[in-house]
Amino acid sequence: MPLTHKGVFDLRFARHLWRLTRVYWTSADAKWGAGLLALCIAGELGLVYCNVRLAIAQSGVFDAVQDKQWPEFVTAIEIFLGVALGVVFVSTYRIYVRNILQMRWRTQLTDHFLGEWMGPHAFLHRELYHNETDNPDQRISQDIQSFVASALGLSLSLLSAVATLVSFAGILWTLSGEWPLRIAGLELWIPGLMMWVAILYAVLSMWLTHLVGRRLVSINFDRLRFEADFRYGLVRFRDHVEAVALARGENVEHQGALARFSNVINNWWLLITAQRNLTLLTSGVGQANGIVPLLVAAPAFFAGRMTLGAVTETQIAYGQVSGALSWFVDAYQEIAAWRASIERLATFAEVLESTRARLARGDGIRVETGAADALQLVKLDLAQADGSVLASDLNTTIRAGERVAVLGPAGPVKSTLFRAIAGLWPFGGGRIELPGQCYPLFLPPQPYLPIGTLRDAVSYPSPKGTFTDQAIGEVLGLVDLGHLKPRLDESEPWDQQLSIDEAQRLTFARALLHEPEWVVMDDATGALDEATEKRVYEILEQRLPHAALVSISNRATIQPYHQRNWTIAANGESGAAMEAG
User: Fold this and answer.
1) 242, 383, 456, 459: which could join 452 in a potential S-S bond, CB 3.0 to 4.6 Å?
2) CB-based contacts of 199: which residues, under 8 Å, 6+ apart?
3) Distance of alpha carbon 389 from alpha carbon 413, whole angstroms
């Protein structure tokens, strides 16, 4: 299976990293983050210092053992235990503080992306870029968490590696300058011998690691996408299980789920193969590296030029220096996964910005607030996202309090007109003027019922507590949903609990609660029988007598409930036009 993304570390990566990092570090919370980051840095440096003291304490213990000095041994053990206690304390609290900073950073970044995504341009973003930015929910939930965790973890571990290198390099240089390197009977005196061995070993390890593991970036990028696609398909089946069962589509859904899962498995094979190769290399490098200082130092020890404590201290110092130099090798798999998260978040941010910029240009349909209390379509042209014409030169004026039915055949024109009036559809030309005093309430054919209680669903988009139980119970009774009154505080998936006609009636109850001055509907009564539809329009007339009502539908049965009727009719190659009925 070919990989769909190439992950590279270049200027583009640097720009993406800065773009994501600055969201938090230029926010109002950055001052608290700076304090926490300072504590994190202090913890990393403190741990390095404790490790230096621990190495010295261990050297003292072994020297006392070698000299068979009991009092010195007891003293060295006491020092060692005290330093070890400090290591435990510093290690624990540096992780604790890092987690606090990670939580605050993730909170700020999540809030930023939610604000960018859940805005007025969310619908347009979906229409234009759904292929380029798959699974935005996963990018916000999982990729942000991975990015923040790895950004802190990798940067602080790199700092620790640098501090460890600086702290132990002097010790290693001093210790390895006291004995020669023996090769075929020759003694070579090389200043800082073990330092040069560690550097050479680390450079070779890094080159081999990158050579073997560089495919992990692209594999991880695709893994996140395939996992999200598979999970989304399962959630979609769960939310539409009744419709699938009625259509006897279980086998099709099953095969589709297996096909999506096969992408996960194929990618998983690529991932575990690449990880196996990298692990074989890094494990081999690590194991071999552990014996290197003993092999080099052993001749000097047997020649009596080093004590056992010095050998132990050399091994510890070499391990610390080598570990610091091998930071890139040890962190490579996390870096690869982090690179994939950065790419997914950065491309998501770029597309959101592109969508917002397209709306700001105003080169399509212009939606403006007019001075008059009227809704006007002025030379309105409707088109698909690809530019194909749906309707042209639509002109009309609907004044406050008027009730107008807009009828037309099945097809995209009616829904596109509805979306254009709502400001969701910029494709086309012309101008739409909304009434200057208020914003219309829009009722789509598929009602949206939010997650939460029934009270939340009826009150939406107003917050809980806006309307009294008496008011909610009254409007539910008006639309023949009175049997739901005892269930106001139940949290259920109401979009699945209610039938489509009940959901449509619930949205009319919502409209009655909010008492809008303008109501624009797109087949909002399409699931109701004629008697219920008549009842709903009568209730709107009684409870909202001064509200303007625009009903876009393909049902001629709504005509008697409106003062004016308009028809969207075919108009040759130029699409459709609106004609008076």
Assistant:
1) 456
2) 325
3) 10
Tokens of 46: 């403190």
The CA–CA distances, whole Å, from 534 to 208, 557, 558 equal: 76, 9, 8
Per-residue pLDDT band at 273 (split at 50, 70, 90): confident
The answer on pLDDT for 262 being more than 60 is yes
Residue closest to 577 by CA, chosen among 445, 381, 339, 422? 381
**Do 170 and 226 share a structural domain?**
yes
Structural domain for 140, as ranges: 11-360
Count, residues in the chain? 581
- pTM of this prediction exceeds 0.85: no
Q: Clarify whether residues 90 and 236 are in a common domain.
A: yes
Terminal Cα-to-Cα distance of the chain (whole angstroms)? 58
Cβ neighbours for 38, distance < 8 A, ≥ 6 positions apart: none
Residue 2 belongs to a domain: no
Q: Is residue 1 part of a domain?
A: no
Query: CA–CA separation, 362 vs 358, rounded Å?
Result: 7
* CATH classification at residue 446: 3.40.50.300
CA 423 to chain centre: 26
Q: Is residue 370 part of a domain?
A: yes
One-letter-per-residue 3-state SS of 267-301:
HHHHHHHHHHHHHHHHHHHHHHHHHHHHHHHHHHH
Counting the structural domains of the chain, the total is 2
Q: What is the DSSP string of 388-404?
A: -EEEEEEEEEEETT-EE
| pLDDT range class, residue 513, cuts 50, 70, 90 | very high
- At 572 the pLDDT is 46
**Local structure of 444: helix, strand or coil:** coil
DSSP per residue, 465-497 = TSS-HHHHHHHHHHTT-GGGGGGTT-B--HHHH
Q: Which of 310, 340, 360 is the last residue of a domain?
A: 360
Report the alpha-carbon distance of residue 359 to residue 378 in Å, rounded.
Answer: 19
Cis peptide before 447 (omega within 30 of 0): no
CA–CA dist 11, 23 (Å, integer):
19
Q: Does residue 398 sit in the same domain as residue 312? A: no
Q: Same structural domain for residues 147 and 116?
A: yes
